[in-house]
Structures are given as structure tokens and as C-alpha cells.
Amino acid sequence: MWANLKNDLGNLAACTVDALAAFTRTRLKKMQYRPDLLDGFITETGLTWTPP
To answer: How far apart are CA 27 and CA 47, in angstroms?
Structure first.
């Protein structure tokens, strides 16, 4: 998840720390509404939702 967020930060020219924090909050909020993206992150880790 952080790697995905950092890719977006690479093209950002924030003038202040507050602007950077606002952008980060916005991007994380957008990710929250994309369950397919979040499921992909979990799948890539090899972890499962059920206990062994």
C-alpha cells in the first residue's frame, strides 16, 4: 500500500508539510473505497484472512 502511495508522491510538488499531509490523507481515503486494490495488496503478501 505504501509503495502505491509513494508512486503518487513522486510526481507531487508540495509547497508545505500541510499540503503533503492533505494529499496523503486524500490518497489513503481514495484507496479505502477501492476494495479490489486493497485485496490485491493482501494477495501479494501471500497472507490469508482465515487462521491456519
So the answer is: 24
